[in-house]
Fold this protein.
Amino acid sequence: MTITAGRKLGALVGVALAGGFLPGITLGSGSDAYMSVLLAFIAVAVLTQLIYVGPSARIGGLPLLAFAAVGVVQDSLIWWLLSWAGPAAGAELRVDGFLTIVLAGLITRVAILGVSLLLGNAAEED
């Protein structure tokens, strides 16, 4: 599996975790919840692919933390955009509060990095 596919899978996992566990994120019910998760996943996947924040080679711990912090800011801004665009797009997606937006960005970035690392290590072993 490629690194790009790993980032997309990580985005899906992160959006599902953030939407499922954070009380400030409302996804709707029934098919509206699926549509809200799909809208959030598409926004996160597309924007993280267009604006890639990360190293192109192996780096040390401190620069990796800097890239991770910038990634959390990027994902938080995406969730902020979703809090505004969700109701405008007709989805039942609502994100309430600044802390919820930051936590959703953190969960999403950790999931993207985690899945990318797991799949990257599995691809290296093949």
Notes: The chain is about 75% helix and 5% strand.
